[in-house]
Design goal:
It is a single chain. By secondary structure, this protein is of the alpha/beta class. α1 (31-44) packs across α2 and α5 (120-137) crosses α6. The chain contains seven helices and six strands; from the N terminus they run βαβαβαααβααββ. It has helices spanning 31-44, 58-68, 97-102, 110-114, 120-137, 149-159, 166-169; strands spanning 2-9, 49-54, 79-80, 142-147, 180-186, 189-195. It is globular. Strands 3-2-4-1-5-6 form a six-stranded mixed beta sheet.
Length: 198
């Protein structure tokens, strides 16, 4: 019995001031982000999704609602899970993206952890628990899960058997907006990880 989770990133965010928004409220999809979400919805339209789960942040909620419009799933039936939320990086929120570029988007140093940031292992733990709970509830089915870039890349790395180091999630590939990975589970163990290409 195989269960498939389509773990996808939200669409592009409207962010004209180019700040690090993290978990800040009020950051919705841009017009391009809405188009991207529709493209994702069309790609998943051929799948018989049993459910859609999403991070509670606005951009993920909007993406999930658009994906649901291509399924027989009402927007009111989307399930929100705080474990799927964006990385906690309070030291950076509200600051220019240039600040993150200076440190190569590495939010995982001991210094930033002592300032309230999450470790990669913390993110992996909450994502793995959330995804396994979803598999348990929907055995043998297909489910879409809308989350954020780093949580997806951390999950992708671990399920592919890689060590959790910055190079595992900041390599040549980084999940684009409104794209993701397919995770295939046999009972509860992950037996396949592949990037969604469309």
């Amino acid at each position: 019995m195989r269960t498939v989770i389509y773990l996808c990133r939200h669409g592009e965010v409207y962010n004209p001031d180019k700040i690090i928004y993290g978990r800040m409220p009020g950051f919705s999809l841009s017009e391009e982000g809405k188009k991207q979400a529709h493209t994702l919805g069309k790609h998943l339209a051929g799948k018989k999704l049993q459910a859609i789960y999403a991070s509670p942040l606005e951009r993920a909620r909007e993406t999930a609602t658009i994906v649901a419009s291509y399924q027989s799933i009402a927007a009111s039936d989307i399930r929100f899970d705080k474990r799927l939320i964006e990385v906690n990086k309070p030291h950076f929120e509200g600051k220019p993206m240039a600040d993150a570029q200076k440190i190569h988007w590495n939010y995982y140093t001991p210094l930033f952890n002592t300032q309230g940031g999450e470790r990669m292992t913390d993110i992996w733990r909450r994502m793995d628990l959330a995804l396994r709970d979803i598999v348990h509830k929907h055995k043998g089915g297909e489910v879409a899960v809308i989350s954020h870039g780093d949580p997806i890349m951390i999950s992708r790395a671990k399920y592919a058997g890689k060590r959790l180091v910055i190079g595992s999630i900041r390599g040549e590939y980084y999940v684009p907006t409104a794209k993701g990975v397919a995770l295939i589970y046999d009972e509860i163990d992950t037996i396949g990880v592949s990037d969604l290409i469309f």
